[in-house]
Amino acid sequence: xxxxxxxxxxxxxxxxxxxxxxxxxxxxxxxxxxxxxxxxxxxxxxxxxxxxxxxxxxxxxxxxxxxxxxxxxxxxxxxxxxxxxxxxxxxxxxxxxxxxxxxxxxxxxxxxxxxxxxxxxxxxxxxxxxxxxxxxxxxxxxxxxxxxxxxxxxxxxxxxxxxxxxxxxxxxxxxxxxxxxxxxxxxxxxxxxxxxxxxxxxxxxxxxxxxxxxxxxxxxxxxxxxxxxxxxxxxxxxxxxxxxxxxxxxxxxxxxxxxxxxxxxxxxxxxxxxxxxxxxxxxxxxxxxxxxxxxxxxxxxxxxxxxxxxxxxxxxxxxxxxxxxxxxxxxxxxxxxxxxxxxxxxxxxxxxxxxxxxxxxxxxxxxxxxxxxxxxxxxxxxxxxxxxxxxxxxxxxxxxxxxxxxxxxxxxxxxxxxxxxxx
Length: 423
Prior knowledge:
The chain is mainly α. It is 39% helix and 4% strand.
C-alpha cells in the first residue's frame, strides 16, 4: 500500500527531475545528444529547443547579420529537399562564369558556399563559429576564408533553409543582401526527405542523438507515413521546412531583392533558369559563357564533380565524435540517373510506385547527387510519391489543400510551378 509519505516523495522526485531536465534543456541541451534515440530528441524538443538539433538562426538576427555580411551577398534559401545544393553549385558557376573548370575554388559545398544555419559542434553556437569561419586552416593548408570569401568573387554565397521572419528580407538599412528561394512539388519533397534521412553518415547521426533516424525501406509502401513524412506534415517538427516555408516566401515573391523559383520550372528549362538567375544577380553572361554555365549546372557534370558530401570543418567535438578532416554529413555513393519530376497532379503515382526492393535500395543509396541537388534525384522509377502508398499520398495532398487551399493560385504554384498570378 502506498502511503501519503511515499506519494509525496515520488511527487517531489518527479518535480525535481522535471526541474533538472528543464535546466539542462535551457543551459546545456547538447547533453541530451548523448542519450539514445528517440529519448534524446524528445528531451531536446520538449525543453524548447529548435528542431532539427543542428539548426540555429542566430546568424540572421537583425542585430547580428550586418556584422558579417557584405553588400551584394546572396543567401540561397531554398526549401529543404528542393534543389539547395544544386542552386549553391549553380550560383557559384554563375559568379565564376563557368571558369572554375577543375573546381579548385569548390572542393566541397560547405567550404565554398557555407551554411550559417548549421551547428557544427554539439555545444556550438554562432558567435564562436563566426570567428572560426575566418581563422580555420584546412588540411591542405588553405585558409577556409579563401574558399567562401575569395577576392575574385563578385558576391559571396551562403546557404539557409529559413524564410522570413528568421531571414530579415525587408530589413531597413544595413547591408544590401539578395535572397534566392525555391519550392518544389510537395510529394516530391516528402519522397526526397525519406531517402535523405537514410543518407546521413552514422557519425553525423550519432553526433545528434540518432537524428535523423534511418528509414527502413520496407515502410515505404506502408499506409502509415514514414517518420520523415510525419515530421514534415503540419504539426510535425519539420513542417516549417515545407508548409511554413512556402506560405512565408509567397508573401515576399515580389520584393526586389528576392527571386522565388520553382524546382519544376528550372528542371524544365535549365538554360532559361540560369539566365534568369544571372540577371537577378546582375552577372552578364555572353552566349558562350551561358552555355558553359548551363552545362556545369547540369546532371552529367554534377555527377562527375562530386563536391557535395558536406564537411564540417568548424567542429570541435572530441572523444572520437567527429573528425573534422575526414568525416562528412552524408555518405558517398553512386550518382543517380536522370529521371522525371512529379507533375503535382498525383495521377501517375499508383502505377509508378511498383518498386522492387532492389529499386528501393537504389533510391536510398544513390546518394549524393540526390542530396547535392534535387535536380539530380529521381531514378527511372521515382516520380515524387512513387515510393509511397496511395493513402500516404492522399494524406499529403489533403495537407496541401488545408494549408494552401485558401489561395488556389498558391496551391497550384506549389504543386506545379509556372508564372505567378497577376496582381
